[in-house]
Amino acid sequence: MSAVAPFGARLAAAMDAHGPLCVGIDPHVPLLHDWGLSDDAAGVREFGLRVVEALGGRVAALKPQAAFFERHGSAGVAALEDVLAAARAAGTLTIVDAKRGDIGSTMGAYADAFLADGSPLAGDAVTLSPYLGFGSLAPAADLAARTGRGIFVLCLTSNSEGHEVQHAVGPDGVSVAASIAAQAAVLNSGAASHGLAMGSVGLVVGATVGDAARATGTDLQAVHGPLLAPGVGAQGAGERELAAVFGPARRQVLASSSRGVLSAGPAAAGLRDAAARAAEQATSALRG
Ligand SMILES: O=c1ccn([C@@H]2O[C@H](COP(=O)(O)O)[C@@H](O)[C@H]2O)c(=O)[nH]1
């Protein structure tokens, strides 16, 4: 058992304190240029540290997108480690958006990288892909539970191409998305029975997916875990879409915006204003 409170409880407290908004740290090349930074490991490191400096302690969570750091090789990965350390020092929860998924024995190694105490790449939670079978994620779910961390499993992603996999229906008549949500609910059942607001096993459900939950028979409320909702801002979703997609599950939602906030940089004041506006909109859509 971990010495820290479970991730779901820590996230619920952070959402109550700061509003249901997560800001993504996605150092796209055009943003690096706009911020006067180089497209190399030093540039993405500085970008990430500036975001942490501006928003640490002001938003519920930060979500570094691992791909933008990994494209610079080992120095980029070291930059991601530094950004995670800075967020940890600022007391802000981090979700490493790495979307890992593999056979169980390899999943154990991914779990050690992203969820083990003392790993420099560990945040408070990591995004995972269930398309090698939800059960293959067990090593990560187990380690997260032992270390007080969380996982977010892809369920209904914000991109339109996700339909062909996630809306597919199995021989039992259950859609892939509904099956993933039901298996996450099983992992959160202990949290529900202990009266915790949310378990530590979350889903990724895009704010852009319209009525996909209903269409696929996916019961989001029953998951009893956090619902990470990318697609806010640059991908076109706003207050109306958030309210429509999540309905009665809306209090579990952590809206996520990257470019929508980051394009207001590099000045800290601009980032703070943009994040505050996005948090107000998310609050109005999800907590009203
Ligand atoms: O379904 C998904 C899952 C993850 N993402 C990630 O979120 C951000 C979105 O960035 P924006 O600039 O706010 O569009 C990015 O890191 C994606 O990889 C997603 O968009 N959809």
TrEMBL record:
Source species, domain of life: Bacteria
Q: Where is the active site?
A: K99 (proton donor)
What span is annotated as the signal peptide, if there is one? none
PROSITE patterns reported in the protein's UniProt record: OMPDECASE
What this protein catalyses is: orotidine 5'-phosphate + H(+) = UMP + CO2
Zinc-finger in keyword set: no
- Its Enzyme Commission number(s) read 4.1.1.23
Family annotation (NCBIfam families): pyrF_sub2
HAMAP family, alphabetized? OMPdecase_type2
User: What is stated as this protein's family in its record?
Assistant: Belongs to the OMP decarboxylase family. Type 2 subfamily.
Q: What is this protein called?
A: Orotidine 5'-phosphate decarboxylase
Instruction: Look up and give the organism this protein is from.
Output: Isoptericola luteus
Its taxonomic placement starts with: Bacteria, Bacillati, Actinomycetota, Actinomycetes, Micrococcales
